[in-house]
């Protein structure tokens, strides 16, 4: 099998981690596999072949001008400040050359460049959570999903902010070269193999705003520290010394989500961590996280993550699963 060429598009204002994160994954896989011929060959290119300056001030020197770049197996488009007012010539190059790639990948706001080139129309996609609304508003032909860390739609893959590009790259390596290679790379980079694409972009605590009033803030903190307790609206309202109706209304107004939604996220997060970090059984974890029964926990995992708890654990801790 011929080498898989990974072509990374460079431009001024690019986010350096959007490039280096996935590149380290592909390069690590190539190092592990060696000279088998089925590994990756990484190339970078800017519009004119000139060095570009990243948003953090680093200068990157590309291998090629885009016009002279080799035909890619995987075309990787990073994000960054430079996506806010992209060069029309770059958009035109993507419009013409993008469909020729075997696999089209974006990291963070690189999805905006693909959208401008018309390459995401009729597809499901994601980007950094802070730009999902903008992407959806400017490109109504795209089904924008703000929650997952990455989305696969046919041969097009889009990922959320910065580090999510590493998760997506690991998933692609696993698809190309197998789980053992991807796991070895993940261990070398000291990251998990692998967060499921359906995992939320940010935690319950980050997803919800911090309540302004002290009693509500204390309730938020108490929920995160006691996921296995009685977390009904009535119980939480009593802890805040408010009526259930007043509490529910105030909680949503100040945090941006209902108490039930916040509790669901906290419990799912806690269950995930226990599956990843401990050898506790699913029944024990379901009780500790307030689900009551393994079936209730299974339904929550399948609904939100697209995988049952046992499958989720296999992805992270294969040694714990028979």
From TrEMBL:
<dbReference type="GO" id="GO:0043565">
    <property type="term" value="F:sequence-specific DNA binding"/>
</dbReference>
<dbReference type="InterPro" id="IPR052158">
    <property type="entry name" value="INH-QAR"/>
</dbReference>
<dbReference type="InterPro" id="IPR009057">
    <property type="entry name" value="Homeodomain-like_sf"/>
</dbReference>
<dbReference type="InterPro" id="IPR029062">
    <property type="entry name" value="Class_I_gatase-like"/>
</dbReference>
<feature type="domain" description="HTH araC/xylS-type">
    <location>
        <begin position="217"/>
        <end position="315"/>
    </location>
</feature>
<dbReference type="InterPro" id="IPR018060">
    <property type="entry name" value="HTH_AraC"/>
</dbReference>
<protein>
    <submittedName>
        <fullName>GlxA family transcriptional regulator</fullName>
    </submittedName>
</protein>
<dbReference type="Pfam" id="PF01965">
    <property type="entry name" value="DJ-1_PfpI"/>
</dbReference>
<keyword id="KW-0804">Transcription</keyword>
<dbReference type="InterPro" id="IPR002818">
    <property type="entry name" value="DJ-1/PfpI"/>
</dbReference>
<keyword id="KW-0805">Transcription regulation</keyword>
<dbReference type="Pfam" id="PF12833">
    <property type="entry name" value="HTH_18"/>
</dbReference>
<dbReference type="GO" id="GO:0003700">
    <property type="term" value="F:DNA-binding transcription factor activity"/>
</dbReference>
């Amino acid at each position: 099998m011929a080498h898989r060429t990974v072509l990374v598009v460079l431009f001024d204002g690019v986010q350096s981690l959007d490039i280096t994160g996935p590149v380290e994954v592909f390069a690590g896989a190539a190092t592990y596999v060696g000279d088998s011929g089925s590994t990756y060959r990484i190339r970078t290119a800017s519009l004119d072949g000139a060095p570009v300056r990243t948003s953090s001030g680093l200068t990157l020197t590309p291998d090629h001008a885009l016009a002279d770049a080799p035909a890619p197996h995987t075309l990787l488009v990073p994000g960054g400040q430079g996506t806010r007012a992209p060069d029309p010539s770059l958009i035109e190059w993507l419009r013409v050359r993008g469909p020729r790639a075997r696999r089209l990948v974006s990291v963070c706001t690189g999805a905006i460049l693909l959208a401008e080139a018309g390459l995401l129309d009729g597809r499901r996609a994601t980007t950094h959570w802070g730009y999902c609304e903008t992407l959806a508003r400017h490109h109504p032909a795209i089904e924008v999903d703000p929650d997952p860390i990455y989305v696969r739609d046919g041969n097009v893959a889009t990922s959320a902010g910065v580090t999510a590009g590493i998760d997506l790259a690991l998933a692609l390596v696993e698809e190309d070269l197998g789980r053992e290679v991807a796991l070895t790379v993940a261990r070398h980079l000291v990251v998990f193999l692998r967060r499921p694409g359906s995992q939320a972009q940010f935690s319950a605590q980050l997803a919800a705003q911090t309540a302004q009033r002290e009693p509500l803030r204390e309730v938020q903190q108490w929920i995160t520290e006691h996921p296995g307790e009685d977390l009904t609206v009535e119980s939480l309202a009593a802890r805040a010394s408010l009526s259930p109706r007043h509490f529910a209304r105030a909680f949503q107004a100040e945090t941006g989500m209902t108490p039930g939604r916040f509790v669901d996220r906290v419990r799912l997060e806690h269950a995930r961590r226990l599956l990843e970090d401990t050898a506790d059984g699913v029944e024990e974890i379901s009780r500790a996280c307030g689900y009551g029964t393994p079936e209730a926990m299974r339904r929550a995992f399948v609904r939100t993550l697209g995988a049952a708890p046992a499958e989720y654990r296999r992805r992270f801790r294969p040694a714990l699963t028979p």
